[in-house]
Amino acid sequence: EADQRPRRVTILGATGSIGQSTLDVIARHPDRFCAYALTAFSRMDVLATSAAASNAAVVVVPDDDASARFAQQWASVGAGKPIPEIRVGAQALADTAADAETDVVMAAIVGAAGLPGALAAAAAGKRVLLANKEALVVAGGLFMETARRYGAELLPIDSEHNAIFQCLPQRSDALAGEGVPATVRRLILTASGGPFRERAIDTLRDVTPDEACAHPNWSMGRKISVDSATMLNKGLEVIEAHWLFGVPADRISVLIHPQSAVHSMVEYEDGSTLAQLGQPDMRTPIAYGLGFPERIESGVGLLDLAKLGRLDFQEPDLTRFPGLRLAFDALAAGQGACIALNAANEVAVDAFLQGKLRFTDIPAVIEEVLAQVDAVDTAGTPTLDALLAADARMRALAEQFAARRPRTP
Ligand code: NAD
Ligand code: MG
Questions:
Q1: Contact between 238 and 172 (Cβ < 8 Å)
Q2: At what angle do helices 232-245 and 159-167 cross, to 10 degrees?
């Protein structure tokens, strides 16, 4: 309606790839959306520029040092505008996600570090645009139960899950994760196969961080880019789909599709397969989440299928991509194993990006940690503290295993 004020958006992880794309979409619709709060862990220059451009009222930074750096940056890019309120620390971030001044929260922090903020937004009954898939891998049951109990409007932003959501009958309960209709036979997640889909397997041990981050179709943050190269990303997405849509692992499959035009598919009982197609640009799912149930302009051009010419599909090769198999194993084993999978992967990817671990040792470290997994109490829904404690234990183990596999030239 014309007289409605713009919806106020908080972006957790505003300086990242998803955060910046979200700001781009919001800026196209000043009548519908405005930025309320932006959070960032580093890159205070980008945070200051983004806050100035979007007129955000609040920024959230990790510590006093970052706060001082933000103020310093503001002096040069603030264009004489009043400086935003600066809030400091992880608790302030979670409080901001639940702030009465915000309507919509984009959860776009990378890794399990994003869980407390995303969960706070769900517990405050916000519209939650969930990009942070690791939050569901670490805390799927707790997160979905919280979203349902407090009436959060949960919209998947990960392109595959957004595609699946678009291929489901539009029902308000699908938002809160009441599951898919019984007539859904299978969810099919497409995967590009990353930069190493065809590289000789015996050369994978020597790949460099820059090679792993050079994704053929998508431009993304470095952690998810490495995850795409190992295909652990698709494994995390299988777990994410399980929780979001309430579908068991044996009805979720993965299909390699190098063109990244079909973003995922839903197979129905009657033999119909529905797909969502589009350019590989995250502004499409972001605009869908912001505008739902309406569609709004995203800045993304239309898909030119004639120019693309062909769409290819093939089964994933689990020898080339052992991370995918490990994720299915973890999902079958339960919540503790999913926490271990994610923690070990975050530690191993970080070590790889720092040049301390070989690419092929990423799944090796995950496998070692999975073998040590301790059971998280699954009687009832575990608390956030219990999940974070398990995450911390698994990280410590992963650090040990990674240190025993140094990258030597
Ligand atoms: P990115 O690395 O580009 O950005 C991450 C953001 O999180 C930054 O703003 C950073 O400051 C913040 N951050 C990092 N560590 C933090 C911490 N410990 N505490 C608080 N904030 C922290 O990542 P991205 O590519 O934008 O991905 C964000 C999330 O979205 C990930 O979970 C990723 O899997 C998911 N996702 C991304 C894409 C994509 O195209 N980039 C697609 C689908 C899903
Ligand atoms: Mg994805």
A1: no
A2: 40
* pLDDT one-digit tens code per residue, 306-341: 999 999 999 999 999 999 999 999 999 999 999 999
CA of 132 to the centre of ligand 1 (A): 7
The domains of the chain are located at 7-156, 334-409
CATH of the domain spanning 334-409 = 1.10.1740.10
* Segment (H or E) for 146: helix 133-149
Q: Can you tell me which atom of ligand 1 is nearest the CA of 133?
A: 32
Q: Contact, 390 vs 337, CB < 8 A? A: no
Ligand 1 atom with minimal separation from the 40 CA: 11
293: cis peptide before it, omega within 30°?
yes
Q: Is the ipTM of this complex over 0.95?
A: yes
Instruction: Please give the CATH topology (third level) of the domain spanning 7-156.
Output: Rossmann fold (3.40.50)
Q: How far is the CA of 181 from the centre of ligand 1 (A)?
A: 31
**CA of 108 relative to ligand 1 center, distance in Å:** 5
Q: How far is the CA of 265 from the centre of ligand 2 (A)?
A: 13
3-state secondary structure of 350: helix
Q: For 115-149, how does the pLDDT look when each residue is reduced to its tens digit (9 = 90+)? A: 999 999 999 999 999 999 999 999 999 999 999 99
**Protein residues near ligand 2, an ion, with CB under 5 A:** 158-160
